[in-house]
Amino acid sequence: MATLSLPLAFFLPLFTALAVFLVRARRAPWLPLLGAVATVAAVADVVRQVAENGPQVHHLGGWQPPLGVELYADGLSALMLGMTALVGLAVTLYAAPYLRGKGYNTELFWPLWLVQWATLNGTFLSADLFNLYVMLELLTLTAAPLAAMAGDRPSLGAAMRYLLLALLGSLAYLLGVALLYGGTGTLHLREVGELVGADAHTAVAAALITAGLFAKAAVFPLHMWLMPAHSNAPAPASAALSALVAKAGLYLVLRLWLWVFPVLLSTYMGWLIGALGALAVLYGSLQALRQPRLKQVIAYSTIAQLGYLLLLLPMVVIPAAAVHAWQGVAYHALAHGFAKSAAFLAAGNMLYSLGHDRLEGLRGLTPYLSITVLTLGLAFASLMALPPSGGFLAKWLLLSGAISGGQWPWAVVIILGSVLAAAYAFRVLAVAHAAPPAGYTEVRPAQRVPRIMEWVPLLLVLIVYAMGVSAMPALGLLEQGAPEGLQ
Amino acid sequence: MIAALQDLLPLWALLASLGTAVIIFALRDERRRQRTFWNLFGASVKLVLVALLVYGFLQGRSYQVAWEVVPGVTFHLAADPLALLFAMLSAVLWLITTVYAVAYLENSAQRARFFGFFSLCVAATFGIALAGNLFTFLLFYEALTLATYPLVVHRGHPAALAAGRTYLAYTLGGGMALLAGTVALYAAVGEQPFSPGGSAAVAEWAAAAPGAATVVLALLLGGVAVKAALFPLQAWLPIAMVAPAPVSALLHAVAVVKAGAFGVVRIVQDVYGHAVAADLNVTPVLAALAAVTILYGSLRALAQVDIKRRLAFSTVSQVSFITLGVAMGGPLGLIGGLVHLVHQGLMKITLFFCAGNYAETLGIHRIESLNGVGRRMPLTSVAFTIGALGMIGFPPIAGFISKWHLGLGALAQELYWILAVLVASTLLNAAYFLPVLRRIWLLPAPAGWPGAMPRTSSAETHRWLLHPALLTALAALLAGVLAAAEFSPLNWAQRIVEQEYPL
Q1: What is the pLDDT of residues B483-503, one digit of tens each?
Q2: Which of A23, A346, B53, B280 is least enclosed, having the fewest CB within 10 Å?
Q3: What is the ipTM of this complex?
Q4: Where does A24-105 have alpha helices with state H?
Q5: B160 CB contacts (<8 Å, ≥6 apart)?
């Protein structure tokens, strides 16, 4: 019974989704929030248990594998679950007034979002390749309609593209899993990892699975779908998609390479994947620098920031760099999650009050949306790794890994990425600080932003600065169940 | 309980300005009285806390605040004499500048944002002062960049935004160099607290791997040299002049350029140690660059027609005296450099206050419009004169004390070319300041000033604008006259140098 909170973390949001669907959100507007709070409590218990007693295992219904479904939480899972819980709570709090004010269909949003949350938790808790496939499918099937919620031509087109590519990705993933199952006779993550050898069979499976996940996570060069999908979705959905859904794909890339395919992880292979990450960092940042709309800037920034996560694979094979890189990547995933969701919610406020998010139209805005501008500034400061943010500590750890391991190219990428991030961030912040253009006596917001929509993103981004004070608690948790050599 | 609270004094002092920033951000723009109250309250509390810190230090207490942030990396605040020198300077000048800024920005837009970031700037500067290792230093050094940007672009017009861009390009570039150097140093020797004379582990490493040690030192110094406006990285400073006068005062006297110069001191003296840096042949290069900057800044200042721009180039030149004092080595040179950290601050802030007063009261921005202004604004002009003469090095004003020690240091180290630089700079200083003084006092006033305000009271300008300038001018004068007294900046600098060069 002790580990009951593992299944609860998955089923609570799922049942809430069902309940919302049945009783209609209109009649029970408090229901999503209740489910969110309960989920946060369950996740908090998972985190506490992992921190106190090490990795936790739960067999659904008491059935042992291979028949039953195993839920497994180690330090990495606990961190991702925790981040998802906090971002999820913020999205839930923010979504109600936002959707109401913008006239979105809440009957559609709540079930989709809550199932998505359940699926995210399921992804972080699954220890089984097929369950992961189911979760990946569900993620896509909830994410695409969320991206299409505006119902206009650009968002429908973007969601369609997203759906197609993500389904192709799932297919590739499933093929890879089938190959592994054929070769090893098991689907359990750690068992597969013990049984596979460094042969062509495994290599093809790894390639299929990795390519599939890359498509889902918008890794360069399979990133094209992300920007339109994330930037046209309603703001709370954008926040969840960028901070959580895309990251779940990358989480699996790292999970699988460290737990299932370490035999294949040669220096050459690491560099190949790392190079894609580096290209994503540079390409995404350069694109972000050219976007005319705020949400597009933030979406391209996601492509860039996710690229850093892949730098783990080239560095983890070098003993001097491994631990730093591992810690840095995990911390980066967390810091990015909070900062990016806060940024999207802040952008949502601008969209909400002005009706658009064109950069040149944001001039002279600060007096009306000062908390939002502050939130945006703090979020960007973490994305460009300025202290005292969590993003800074993450980059410090990554850079320590690169320099300790003598990996100069990655060090250069990390530094260059920060400089470029500063460039696109300040392009936005400069506009927010600019005086109103001549001719305008005053830029009045079209619609007043509800106070809760200003405070929720601010509190979210303040978590990143709490993370900047000390990384020790999170890194201590990360040690639970980490692969050998990474503790 | 009381003891524990007292041990955390550095943290309270840091929180005093951070808390002020938060409160002010939360106040609406119209809440003028409340904002002014919190501004002055925060700055006063900060000053008292820093004074307690100094008092406790003199009683032999050692203040340390430290906790592990990342494995093997600590956030560390420590109150050593050098830290207190800079902390004291920033606390005193923050209070005075706040008074000035409240009067100066009374009618401008976005005051809540301005004063919020103003306080953040001071918090960052205080953190830089009390940083006990390179990581903590870097933390606040970067935070300072972020906090200063909104002040530079405060007016929001295209020139301000362009200046902000240039400022960021330089300072963030420098920050990245500092970050790379710091991480590389940590990777090589682990965490080393700042210690007088440099760390033994760094010295050992520098002996074993001189190439790497030189590259890392160059990265570190390159990083701080940007804010210190060392040639050829000085271009941002004159452009940042579009900021309002109190910001320029703060930037030039306390916060940004001083943070850079202070970083040079920490890195050369307390991380590598002067001897090691000299062995790696870095200090001669540093000395040469400082000398070039001194002459370059003065020459450029000579050609400026705008008062603030002339003062800005003068800063470029004068701040490099600090770097020069560190780079030349030896106790006397270091005393000269360190004491100039304070002296230049007092004199330059006076000059900027006065320039702001001329601009606010009479609409004067250009040097040629200063004719006869001494009769219309005699007190401001006296303050300006003290500042300018001090910069040139007239005894007994503070600047003379700095230059005197720098000269003695150069003699002691047998670096005679530095004497030539000092003489040349003094002549150049005279060349760009004396004509200004002549206009102020000796030339007849024009028929009317471009933006003259009607005289509403007996005072020549708003009291809150006038008194800060008089106060800092008096401080600059006293720092020179009473240089031999206990607790003068000179005395304190000697105290620091005794640690670095045990006799």
Answers
A1: 888 888 888 888 888 887 775
A2: A23
A3: 0.90
A4: 31-53, 75-102
A5: B152, B153, B154, B242, B243
- Cross-chain Cβ contact A374/B25 below 8 Å: yes
Task: Work out the average pLDDT over B210-222.
Answer: 94
Q: Tell me chain B's radius of gyration from C-alpha atoms.
A: 22
Distance CA A163, CA B323 (A): 60
Q: Quick: pLDDT tens for A229-284.
A: 888 888 999 999 989 998 999 999 999 999 988 888 888 889 999 999 999 999 99
CA distance B179 to A441: 43
Which one-letter amino acid corresponds to residue A228? P
Q: Shortest CA distance to A371 belongs to which of A460, A431, A434, A457? A: A457
> Among B459, B462, B432, which Cα is nearest to B356's?
B462
Q: Work out the percent of chain A whose per-residue pLDDT is above 90.
A: 54
Backbone angles phi, psi at B78, to 5 degrees: -140, 140
Nearest to B11 by CA among B130, B115, B93: B130
Judging by DSSP bridges, how do beta strands B73-78 and B64-70 pair with one another? antiparallel
Within 13 Å, how many C-alpha atoms sit on residue B268's CB side? 37
Query: How many Å apart are CA A374 and CA A365, to the nearest integer?
Result: 12
Please report, as a single letter, which amino acid is at residue B160: A
Q: Which one-letter DSSP state was computed for residue B233? A: S
Rounded Cα distance between A416 and A311, Å, is 14
Contact, B135 vs B182, CB < 8 A? yes
Amino acid at B266: R
**Has this prediction a pTM greater than 0.95?**
no
Q: What angle do CA B238, B242, B245 make, to 5 degrees?
A: 100
Count of other CB atoms within 10 angstroms of residue A437: 11
**Residues in chain B whose Cβ is within 8 Å of chain A:** 25, 29, 67-71, 73, 75, 109-110, 112-113, 135, 138-140, 142-143, 145-146, 149-150, 153-157, 161, 164-165, 168, 172-173, 175-176, 179-180, 183-184, 186-187
Pairwise CA distance, residues A205 & A172, whole Å:
9
Instruction: Name the residue in chain B with its Cα closest to that of A396.
Output: B183
Kindly state the tokens that stand for A226. Answer: 């992300």
**Amino acid occupying residue B58:** L
- Whole-angstrom distance, CA of residue B38 vs CA of residue B34: 6
Lowest mean pLDDT among B25-39, B115-129, B201-215, B254-268: B25-39
Question: Whats the size of chain B, residue-wise?
Answer: 503
Distance CA A293, CA A231 (A): 9
Query: Do residues A280 and A317 touch, judged by C-beta distance below 8 A?
Result: no
Dihedral over alpha carbons A113, A116, A122, A128 (to 10 degrees) = 170
Please state, as a whole number, how many other Cβ atoms lie within 10 Å of the Cβ of residue A470: 15
Q: Which residues contact B268 (CB under 8 A, 6 or more apart)?
A: B221, B274, B277, B283, B286, B326, B327
CB A113 within 8 A of CB A237: yes
Tell me the two tokens of residue B288: 């040469």
- Give the C-alpha separation, A444 to A355, whole Å: 12
pLDDT at B175: 92
